[in-house]
Structures are given as structure tokens and as C-alpha cells.
Write a structure and sequence with these properties.
Number of helices: 14
Distance between the termini: 25 Å
Shape: globular
Largest sheet: 6 strands, mixed
Length: 466
Amino acid sequence: MAFPVDPILKKYDVFPLVFSAGKEVTITIRSLGSDPDFISGEEYNLEIVGFDGGNCFDFPLTASNYRTKLTCTEENGFVFSHTFETEQEYNLMFSGADGKVIKNFCVYAVDGELKERYPFIGDLHLHTYLSDGDELPEVVCANYRRHGYDFLAITDHRRYYPSLRAIKAYEDCPTELTMVPGEEVHLPLVNGHRNDIHIINFGGEYSINAMVESVQTEEVGKAPETRAFFPEKAPDVMTLQEFEDKMQALADEADLPDNIERIPYAMCKWIFDEIKKANGLGIFAHPNWKRMGGYHSPEIFSDYMFAQKPFDAFEVLGGERYYEQNGFQTIRYYEEVAKGHKVPIVGSTDSHSSYSENKGAYICSTIVFAHENERTDLIQSIKDYYSVAVDTISTEFRLVGEMRLAKYSCFLLKYYFPLHDEICYEEGRLMKQYVTGTEDEKAEAKAMLKIINGRADKLRKKYICL
């Protein structure tokens, strides 16, 4: 995702970067072949400073400082053991006999439930040429892996089957990219009224679009294999009349304020309920998307959505680069939290081309702190508020989320994810070769993917020692 690479990563290998607070850890610092800053066999001063406590001279009551002396190794680095008592970022300051600082290295200690969770970065909302995007679903997946994404869902408008196509394309090919089923839900008119609130079904085990006769069923039919991740769980398909009657009845029965459109809200509530039944994540997408007729979701309607919270997560970032969308949605998120309406958040690209020539291709993402990079764990972790939305519209990233997770994510984006992205690049390139190359090229790509499979997991466990 082209996060700025800290110069220290080019000169030194520091591992682990993340570890458990309150438990002794052995840290290794190795030169990567640059002109050495340290001389093997000589002694240097090490001062370990916790960022949260402030400067030890001005804030001695809260500062976290530890001093020792270390001898430089033959690799022009250091190996030492230490117990970092509390969760925070720490600065490892090395100086010579004259007290002048030579180099700083940063590490991070985590505590509590974060000691059981790894960071995974992904996209929960993007499109392919099977709706209004530019590339094949399987090519989109390869391109996003090449840019460092750990997980994603193809969420084409009105269509669930493109996400299944992407998953199937790699079913016989080893990859560490987690592809989950998904769709952007748009349902037919109900007595001339439509629900234009865009809703993402991330990871649902069956299609909501295909629960009624629609574009999905017209294009690929009603076979369960096209409508569900687990075909045996595919629900029956309603006729247009059955659907219209059902939605009208729900609208008539709903107890709603006079200023809330009955059919749109009743349809939203039904969609989100069905996504829950499908064990997916229902995402309220881009309410402040500016259209010719006004905001995508009227402010009063959005207020009511947050008060009732029928959705599982709020797409706080994604889709457009002008301020009103992500800016206003970020303000809303913090204001809703202040009101006591705590909501899980995600960031997504809503991209329609997976190549970097598209300025919106990689503008937003989500970091999820999960036990493993797996559909159900990712969904549950987001529902449990272990996610941070990442804005990469500008060259310097911005984060939205709880302070604790945002501070940790900021460290990871600077010191861990640039290393992670290098591993992902080659895998993504080979994935694209596998789905677009000649037969010989496909065989070569599959063989190479088999060889490198597991590298991302090894890197994760090297630098994040929990």
C-alpha cells in the first residue's frame, strides 16, 4: 500500500518489533549491510524510553526510562533481553561514550487481549468488471495481494457470484490472501419505492441479492452453487411479487418516526437481519457520498440508523477523495461514540479498478486485530471493535478508531507493514500470472506459489512475538 518506509528498515533488521508486556523478551538488532554505525566489540549505552510517560527530565513521576551498557556483536548490532512492563511504544536509544545519540530503534509492547491477536489489513468493499469495475475478480484479488492486502471481499453491485468466482479461481493454488464471499446489496422496487442505501454483505454465507429474482439470478440462474458459499444453506428465491408483498408488510408494521421513509428503512433492516442470519458482516456504506440529489443517506435517516444500529459496522472511510465523505463520516463516528453509540468501523476503497493509475484504487483499508486471517474470525473481531480504518488518500496515512488501537496501528504502519508488503508483492504477481498466463506460465506460477507459501506467516511471527 506504499506506506512510507522508515529509513531504519533499510539499514537494520530489528526483531521482534512487537511483543507481550510484562514478559522478558530477547531483541536482536542486525546490520543489513550498510555503512555500520556501531563497531563490533565496542561498548555502547542503551536507554529504553517509553513514549507514553514523557521526558524523564520534565516528567520524572511518569517517565519510563531504563539504562544499561551493551557490547556490539559481530553483525554490527546488539542482542539483549528486557522486560517491557506496560503497553506502549518504546524508543531504544544507543549512544557512545560521549553521550551523543547514534541511532534510535522503536519497538512496541502489547498487553491484555492484544497479546492473542495479530494485525491483518484488508478491503471489505470493491468492484470488478462483472458489475461496474474494470478487471476480472481473480485479477483484482491478485493486484490487491501485490499491494499488501491480507484479506478482501469482491462486493459487486447486485451480484454475489463474482466473489465465488474469485475464490474458486485459487482453490487449487496456494495463497495466503484470504478471499471471502461478498456483494453490494441492491433490491428491486417496492410499489414504486426503492431503497438506495448501499449495504455491503461481507463474508455472508449466502447472497441477499439472490433471495429475490434479480440481476444475479438472470445472469447465472438459481443454482445454489451460484448463490451461497455453502450451497446447502442457500435460501429459496422469492418472486418479485412475493418480495414486494413481504417488504410492504414490513414497512406497514414498522414503528417508525414520521420523518423516516418507511420502505427504505424496512428494507435496510431486513437486509441487515438477513446478513446476520448468513453469518456475515452488514456494513452501512458511505452515507456522506455526495450525489446530484444530495447526500447518499439523508442526515435524519443516518441519525436514525445510528440510534437503532441495525447494521454491524460503519464504513467510516472509503470511496471518494473529497473531504465531505470521509471527513464528515469521521466526525459522525466520534460524535456517535460521544453519545454512547459505539459502533465497529471499517475503511474500504470501494474501488472500480485495481491498478494504481486509478487514484482511488488504494485510498483506504481496514486493520483487523484477529486471532487468525480467517473469515469468521475477521468478522467477529470487527464486531468486537478490534478494527481501525486507514486513510491513505494523501502520502501520509490517517487513522480512525479507538486511541489504543490507533497508536498500535500507527507503529505497525511505519515499522511492520512495509516489511510485510514486500513479501506480498511477489505472491500477488504470481497470482496474476496463475490466472492470466499461458499453461506453462500457470504451472510455473503455481509451483513458485507452493514454494513461497507461508512466508507471510513466518514474517508475522518473526516480528510480532506474542
